[in-house]
Amino acid sequence: MSNISPYIYLSISPISQDFVKHVDTQDSLASFLAVDQHKRLEKISTKTRKVEFLGVRSILFKLYQRYKLSQGLLPTSQADVYLTQDELGRPYLGLSKMSTRNNRETVYKKTNIEKVENATIPSVSLSHSKQWLAAVISDQSRIGIDIEIPSRMVSEALKSRFFTQQELQNDIFSDHPVWLWAIKESVVKCIGKGILADMTKVVVRMAAVNTSTKENWSINRHPSILSGQERVYTFYASHASKDWFEGRVWIHPLYVCAIAVPSLNEGGKNE
Protein backbone atom coordinates (compact mmCIF):
# COMPACT_ATOMS: atom_id res chain seq x y z
CA MET A 1 0.00 0.00 0.00
CA SER A 2 1.26 3.48 -0.83
CA ASN A 3 2.13 5.83 2.00
CA ILE A 4 0.98 8.78 -0.08
CA SER A 5 -2.06 10.58 1.28
CA PRO A 6 -5.18 10.76 -0.91
CA TYR A 7 -5.46 14.42 0.07
CA ILE A 8 -2.92 15.88 -2.32
CA TYR A 9 -3.91 18.92 -4.35
CA LEU A 10 -1.62 19.72 -7.24
CA SER A 11 -1.87 22.72 -9.54
CA ILE A 12 0.23 23.22 -12.67
CA SER A 13 -0.46 26.44 -14.54
CA PRO A 14 1.08 28.42 -17.39
CA ILE A 15 1.64 32.15 -16.99
CA SER A 16 -0.51 34.24 -19.34
CA GLN A 17 -1.37 37.94 -19.62
CA ASP A 18 -4.84 37.28 -18.21
CA PHE A 19 -3.20 35.41 -15.36
CA VAL A 20 -0.91 38.40 -14.67
CA LYS A 21 -3.86 40.83 -14.52
CA HIS A 22 -5.76 38.49 -12.21
CA VAL A 23 -2.83 38.15 -9.82
CA ASP A 24 -2.31 41.91 -9.63
CA THR A 25 -5.88 42.47 -8.43
CA GLN A 26 -6.13 39.80 -5.72
CA ASP A 27 -6.74 41.50 -2.38
CA SER A 28 -7.17 38.14 -0.66
CA LEU A 29 -3.63 37.16 -1.64
CA ALA A 30 -2.22 40.05 0.40
CA SER A 31 -3.68 38.66 3.62
CA PHE A 32 -2.38 35.18 2.73
CA LEU A 33 1.25 36.35 2.61
CA ALA A 34 3.15 36.88 5.84
CA VAL A 35 5.30 39.95 6.45
CA ASP A 36 8.47 38.20 5.28
CA GLN A 37 6.80 37.38 1.96
CA HIS A 38 5.79 41.01 1.42
CA LYS A 39 9.36 42.07 2.17
CA ARG A 40 10.68 39.59 -0.38
CA LEU A 41 8.21 40.93 -2.94
CA GLU A 42 9.38 44.50 -2.35
CA LYS A 43 12.93 43.48 -3.22
CA ILE A 44 11.94 41.99 -6.60
CA SER A 45 12.70 44.52 -9.32
CA THR A 46 11.64 42.72 -12.51
CA LYS A 47 8.05 42.21 -13.64
CA THR A 48 8.71 38.60 -14.65
CA ARG A 49 10.07 37.60 -11.27
CA LYS A 50 7.24 39.43 -9.52
CA VAL A 51 4.63 37.57 -11.55
CA GLU A 52 6.31 34.23 -10.80
CA PHE A 53 6.47 35.06 -7.09
CA LEU A 54 2.84 36.17 -6.82
CA GLY A 55 1.51 33.69 -9.36
CA VAL A 56 2.72 30.54 -7.65
CA ARG A 57 1.45 31.82 -4.29
CA SER A 58 -1.88 32.66 -5.88
CA ILE A 59 -2.45 29.11 -7.10
CA LEU A 60 -1.36 27.80 -3.68
CA PHE A 61 -4.02 29.97 -2.01
CA LYS A 62 -6.65 28.51 -4.35
CA LEU A 63 -5.44 25.01 -3.53
CA TYR A 64 -5.78 25.76 0.16
CA GLN A 65 -9.41 26.73 -0.40
CA ARG A 66 -9.99 23.38 -2.11
CA TYR A 67 -8.21 21.62 0.73
CA LYS A 68 -10.58 23.28 3.21
CA LEU A 69 -13.56 21.98 1.26
CA SER A 70 -12.11 18.45 1.44
CA GLN A 71 -12.00 18.83 5.23
CA GLY A 72 -15.64 19.92 5.36
CA LEU A 73 -14.78 23.60 5.89
CA LEU A 74 -16.07 26.53 3.87
CA PRO A 75 -13.55 28.67 1.97
CA THR A 76 -13.34 32.35 2.90
CA SER A 77 -12.32 35.50 1.05
CA GLN A 78 -9.77 36.36 3.74
CA ALA A 79 -7.00 33.91 4.55
CA ASP A 80 -7.25 32.06 7.87
CA VAL A 81 -3.69 30.87 7.35
CA TYR A 82 -0.63 32.73 6.14
CA LEU A 83 2.31 31.66 4.02
CA THR A 84 5.81 32.20 5.36
CA GLN A 85 9.13 30.37 5.21
CA ASP A 86 11.73 29.10 7.65
CA GLU A 87 15.38 30.09 7.91
CA LEU A 88 16.31 27.56 5.21
CA GLY A 89 13.76 28.93 2.75
CA ARG A 90 11.15 26.20 3.09
CA PRO A 91 7.59 27.55 2.72
CA TYR A 92 4.98 26.61 5.29
CA LEU A 93 1.59 27.72 6.54
CA GLY A 94 0.83 29.24 9.92
CA LEU A 95 -2.60 29.67 11.48
CA SER A 96 -3.83 33.27 11.47
CA LYS A 97 -5.68 34.68 14.43
CA MET A 98 -6.90 38.27 14.69
CA SER A 99 -6.60 39.94 18.09
CA THR A 100 -8.85 42.69 19.46
CA ARG A 101 -6.43 45.22 17.95
CA ASN A 102 -6.74 43.55 14.54
CA ASN A 103 -3.12 42.41 14.61
CA ARG A 104 -2.20 39.02 13.23
CA GLU A 105 -0.83 36.73 15.92
CA THR A 106 1.24 33.63 15.27
CA VAL A 107 -0.47 30.71 16.95
CA TYR A 108 2.42 28.40 16.04
CA LYS A 109 5.21 28.04 13.55
CA LYS A 110 5.93 24.46 12.55
CA THR A 111 6.95 22.92 9.25
CA ASN A 112 4.99 19.75 9.92
CA ILE A 113 1.33 19.17 10.65
CA GLU A 114 0.11 20.53 13.96
CA LYS A 115 -3.40 20.74 15.36
CA VAL A 116 -4.54 23.82 17.24
CA GLU A 117 -8.17 24.39 18.17
CA ASN A 118 -9.15 21.46 15.91
CA ALA A 119 -7.48 23.09 12.89
CA THR A 120 -5.11 21.11 10.71
CA ILE A 121 -2.36 22.96 8.88
CA PRO A 122 -1.23 21.10 5.74
CA SER A 123 2.22 20.99 4.20
CA VAL A 124 2.97 22.96 1.03
CA SER A 125 5.62 23.28 -1.66
CA LEU A 126 6.13 25.69 -4.58
CA SER A 127 8.06 25.73 -7.85
CA HIS A 128 8.28 27.73 -11.07
CA SER A 129 10.27 27.40 -14.27
CA LYS A 130 10.11 29.83 -17.20
CA GLN A 131 6.41 30.11 -18.07
CA TRP A 132 5.15 27.42 -15.67
CA LEU A 133 4.00 27.49 -12.06
CA ALA A 134 3.41 24.53 -9.77
CA ALA A 135 2.09 24.25 -6.21
CA VAL A 136 1.07 21.34 -4.02
CA ILE A 137 -0.71 21.10 -0.68
CA SER A 138 -1.31 17.99 1.42
CA ASP A 139 -1.87 16.63 4.91
CA GLN A 140 1.41 14.74 4.52
CA SER A 141 3.94 15.70 7.19
CA ARG A 142 6.25 16.89 4.39
CA ILE A 143 6.00 17.29 0.64
CA GLY A 144 8.23 18.67 -2.13
CA ILE A 145 7.55 19.74 -5.71
CA ASP A 146 9.65 20.77 -8.69
CA ILE A 147 8.72 21.77 -12.22
CA GLU A 148 11.11 22.05 -15.17
CA ILE A 149 10.77 22.60 -18.90
CA PRO A 150 11.73 19.51 -20.96
CA SER A 151 14.28 21.49 -22.99
CA ARG A 152 16.35 22.39 -19.94
CA MET A 153 19.92 21.23 -20.46
CA VAL A 154 21.58 19.18 -17.73
CA SER A 155 25.29 19.53 -18.38
CA GLU A 156 27.75 16.66 -18.19
CA ALA A 157 29.33 18.41 -15.21
CA LEU A 158 26.00 18.38 -13.33
CA LYS A 159 25.37 14.75 -14.28
CA SER A 160 28.76 13.62 -13.01
CA ARG A 161 28.30 15.54 -9.78
CA PHE A 162 24.69 14.76 -8.89
CA PHE A 163 23.77 11.54 -10.75
CA THR A 164 24.97 8.05 -9.82
CA GLN A 165 26.29 5.60 -12.40
CA GLN A 166 23.30 3.35 -11.78
CA GLU A 167 20.93 6.23 -12.49
CA LEU A 168 22.79 7.17 -15.66
CA GLN A 169 22.53 3.57 -16.87
CA ASN A 170 18.74 3.80 -16.68
CA ASP A 171 17.48 4.33 -20.23
CA ILE A 172 14.83 6.81 -19.12
CA PHE A 173 17.28 9.02 -17.24
CA SER A 174 20.01 8.78 -19.86
CA ASP A 175 17.53 9.92 -22.52
CA HIS A 176 15.76 12.46 -20.29
CA PRO A 177 18.13 13.70 -17.56
CA VAL A 178 15.79 16.59 -16.73
CA TRP A 179 13.30 14.04 -15.38
CA LEU A 180 15.87 12.86 -12.85
CA TRP A 181 16.80 16.43 -11.99
CA ALA A 182 13.16 17.33 -11.24
CA ILE A 183 12.74 14.22 -9.09
CA LYS A 184 15.86 14.95 -7.05
CA GLU A 185 14.83 18.57 -6.60
CA SER A 186 11.43 17.46 -5.28
CA VAL A 187 13.11 15.10 -2.79
CA VAL A 188 15.47 17.84 -1.58
CA LYS A 189 12.50 20.18 -1.12
CA CYS A 190 10.66 17.46 0.79
CA ILE A 191 13.65 17.09 3.13
CA GLY A 192 13.40 20.83 3.71
CA LYS A 193 17.01 21.60 4.59
CA GLY A 194 17.94 23.59 1.50
CA ILE A 195 21.47 23.01 0.22
CA LEU A 196 22.26 21.20 3.48
CA ALA A 197 20.22 18.26 2.15
CA ASP A 198 22.96 17.61 -0.46
CA MET A 199 21.45 16.37 -3.71
CA THR A 200 24.49 14.11 -4.26
CA LYS A 201 23.11 11.87 -1.49
CA VAL A 202 19.73 11.43 -3.20
CA VAL A 203 19.46 8.15 -5.12
CA VAL A 204 16.43 7.51 -7.35
CA ARG A 205 14.92 4.46 -9.02
CA MET A 206 11.83 4.26 -11.17
CA ALA A 207 9.05 1.81 -10.35
CA ALA A 208 7.82 -0.72 -12.88
CA VAL A 209 5.81 0.88 -15.67
CA ASN A 210 2.65 -0.97 -14.65
CA THR A 211 2.80 0.28 -11.05
CA SER A 212 -0.57 1.74 -10.10
CA THR A 213 -0.73 5.52 -9.92
CA LYS A 214 -4.49 5.82 -9.47
CA GLU A 215 -4.71 7.12 -5.92
CA ASN A 216 -7.65 9.37 -5.17
CA TRP A 217 -5.71 12.57 -5.77
CA SER A 218 -7.33 15.87 -6.63
CA ILE A 219 -5.43 17.25 -9.61
CA ASN A 220 -6.21 20.85 -10.49
CA ARG A 221 -5.28 21.26 -14.16
CA HIS A 222 -5.34 24.50 -16.08
CA PRO A 223 -7.97 24.44 -18.89
CA SER A 224 -5.21 24.66 -21.51
CA ILE A 225 -3.70 21.36 -20.33
CA LEU A 226 -5.24 18.14 -21.57
CA SER A 227 -4.79 15.32 -19.06
CA GLY A 228 -4.35 12.81 -21.85
CA GLN A 229 -1.14 14.56 -22.88
CA GLU A 230 0.58 13.57 -19.64
CA ARG A 231 2.41 10.41 -18.71
CA VAL A 232 2.71 9.56 -15.03
CA TYR A 233 5.48 7.52 -13.44
CA THR A 234 6.10 6.32 -9.89
CA PHE A 235 9.54 6.68 -8.35
CA TYR A 236 11.30 5.79 -5.11
CA ALA A 237 14.27 7.57 -3.60
CA SER A 238 16.61 7.50 -0.64
CA HIS A 239 18.73 10.16 1.02
CA ALA A 240 22.03 9.20 2.65
CA SER A 241 20.81 5.56 2.55
CA LYS A 242 18.58 6.10 5.58
CA ASP A 243 15.61 8.33 4.66
CA TRP A 244 13.11 6.99 2.14
CA PHE A 245 10.77 8.78 -0.24
CA GLU A 246 8.28 8.01 -2.96
CA GLY A 247 6.48 10.14 -5.48
CA ARG A 248 5.14 10.77 -8.94
CA VAL A 249 6.53 12.53 -11.97
CA TRP A 250 4.24 13.97 -14.63
CA ILE A 251 5.71 14.17 -18.12
CA HIS A 252 4.08 16.64 -20.51
CA PRO A 253 5.40 18.05 -23.81
CA LEU A 254 5.67 21.46 -22.10
CA TYR A 255 6.81 20.55 -18.58
CA VAL A 256 8.16 17.91 -16.22
CA CYS A 257 6.71 18.02 -12.71
CA ALA A 258 7.63 15.80 -9.75
CA ILE A 259 6.36 15.56 -6.18
CA ALA A 260 7.94 13.59 -3.33
CA VAL A 261 6.73 12.57 0.13
CA PRO A 262 8.37 10.58 2.93
CA SER A 263 8.03 6.80 2.83
CA LEU A 264 8.07 4.53 5.87
CA ASN A 265 10.32 2.00 4.22
CA GLU A 266 12.51 1.29 1.22
CA GLY A 267 10.90 1.37 -2.20
CA GLY A 268 7.30 1.51 -1.00
CA LYS A 269 7.49 -2.01 0.43
CA ASN A 270 4.95 -3.03 3.02
CA GLU A 271 6.26 -3.80 6.49
Question: Describe it for me?
Answer:
- By secondary structure, the chain is of the alpha+beta class.
- The protein has a single domain (1-271), classed as 4'-phosphopantetheinyl transferase domain (Ribosomal Protein L22, Chain A, Alpha-Beta Complex), CATH 3.90.470.
- Helix content is 28%, strand content 31%.
- The chain contains 8 helices and 14 strands.
- The protein has helices spanning 17-24, 27-32, 35-42, 47-70, 156-162, 165-168, 171-175, 177-191, and strands at residues 8-14, 81-85, 91-98, 104-106, 115-116, 119-120, 123-129, 132-138, 144-148, 202-206, 218-221, 231-239, 243-252, 255-263.
- A 5-stranded antiparallel sheet has the order 9-14-13-12-10, covered by helices on one side. Strands 7-8-1-11 form a 4-stranded mixed sheet, covered by helices on one side. A 3-stranded antiparallel sheet has the order 2-3-4, covered by helices on one side.
- α1 crosses α4 (47-70).
- The longest helix is centred in the first third of the chain and has 24 residues, at 47-70.
- The protein is globular and about 50 Å long.
- The model is unreliable at 98-119 (pLDDT under 50).
In terms of topology, how is this protein built?
Elements: E1 8-14, H1 17-24, H2 27-32, H3 35-42, H4 47-70, E2 81-85, E3 91-98, E4 104-106, E5 115-116, E6 119-120, E7 123-129, E8 132-138, E9 144-148, H5 156-162, H6 165-168, H7 171-175, H8 177-191, E10 202-206, E11 218-221, E12 231-239, E13 243-252, E14 255-263
Helix pairs in contact: 1-4
